[in-house]
Amino acid sequence: MECPAREREKAAVLMEYCARKLDPWSAAVVERHVAQCDACQDWIRAQQAVWEALDAWEAAPVPSDFDRKLYARIEREERPARWSGLLWRLRAVNLRSALSLALASAVLLAALLIRPHPPKPVPLPQQAQVESLDADRLERALDDVEMLRQLNVASSSERQPM
Amino acid sequence: MVAVAVIEPDAQLMLRVKEGDAASFALLLERHRAAAIHFLYRMVQNQAVAEELAQEAFLRVYRARASYEPTAKFTTWLFRIATHLALNSLRDRRSQKVHESLDEVAEEAASRQIADRRPTIEQALLDRARLEDVRRAIAALPDKQRAAVLMHKYEEMEYSQIARVLNCSEGAVKSLLFRAYETLRARLAHLA
């Protein structure tokens, strides 16, 4: 076995040995080499010291309100999305309502426009008016002539000696 | 013979979340919240920021549920999001000169973390100093090396998974880890 302590690429074996991650066969090979290699013994001793020092560094316990805070953040984040979804739905409903209202208004207006109206006096054409006016005048003139004739008859009978 | 792709349990849960199953999201949260918070705490070394980032990570998971496809392990995806958030936060905070507040938080965190284990005041002070050395040594690592070490050491992730989280090759991960542990060995040699 080549000395892993002298080669960066092969030092991973020693790191794994110190971390007790090697399989038994590989660990035995390393131990045989280490038993006769001062450089590897020093390397392992120093690495194990680092390993133990790192072991002493325990992280703080997880805060009890971690989940509550996380779910609150998720809730806060999802709320605008829900509101926008609701607004979108409302907008869609409003749009549908507006369209329905516009359609209903159009139908109502059309119905009002085509509804039968009460008959209005239809103005006669001007020619007919003239004709109607002339007939009246003629009638009145004839009446006047008849009145004159009767008046003349009456006057003649008064001038004749009795 | 038809090959059937085996979907890991977490991915199956996530697929149920995609279908609107809130209980599956709660289960994923239950399984991975501690790992996510601890990873982020060790990355940014500020409890409040870590919690905030962990919430953001799970929020992003929830937001992305509709487009989720089980192309990788769920934890790879979750830690990718978490790492991305942590790296951004570190970059932002670095520009805001937060070292003072980081020290305050570290003091408070250190006292809390060793509170139950102090057999004597001297031992407690020693533990506290030791923890502070570890914290500072980790904090001094370049961001990607730090992320790689934390995933390797505390999450016990394989190189391949770390590579997918960090979006690099397995060789690059080994190189990152080698350099990171080399630095830590030098900085923490006095603890040996």
Explain what this protein looks like in three dimensions:
Chain A has 162 residues and is mainly alpha-helical. Among the domains of chain A are: 52 residues, no CATH class; 53 residues. Chain A is built from 5 helices and no strands. The longest helix of chain A has 49 residues. The radius of gyration of chain A is 61 Å and the shape is rod-shaped. The C terminus of chain A is likely disordered. Chain B has 3 domains: 89 residues, RNA polymerase sigma factor, region 2, helix turn helix motif (Rna Polymerase Sigma Factor, Chain: A, Orthogonal Bundle), CATH 1.10.1740; 43 residues; 47 residues, Orthogonal Bundle (Arc Repressor Mutant, subunit A), CATH 1.10.10. Chain B is 74% helix and 0% strand. The relative contact order of chain B is 0.10.
In summary, what is this structure?
With 162 residues, chain A is an all-alpha fold. Among the domains of chain A are: 4-55, no CATH class; 61-113.
CATH class descriptor of the largest domain in chain B = Mainly Alpha
Per DSSP E runs of 2 or more residues, the count of β-strands of chain B stands at 0
Report Rg of chain B.
19 Å
Q: What distance separates the N and C termini of chain B?
A: 56 Å
Strand content of chain A: under 5%
Number of strands of chain A: 0
Provide the CATH topology of the largest domain in chain B. Answer: Rna Polymerase Sigma Factor, Chain: A
Mean pLDDT of chain A: 74
Number of helices of chain B: 9
Main β-sheet of chain A: number of strands, strand sense, barrel status?
none
Helix content of chain A: over 70%
Secondary-structure-based class of chain A equals mainly alpha
| Overall average pLDDT of chain B | 86
Largest sheet of chain B: none
What is the N-to-C order of secondary-structure elements of chain B (H for helix, E for strand)?
HHHHHHHHH
Q: How much of the sequence of chain B is in beta strands?
A: under 5%
Amino-to-carboxy terminus distance of chain A: 185 Å
Uncertain parts of chain A: 158-162
Number of helices of chain A: 5
Q: Helical percent range of chain B? A: over 70%
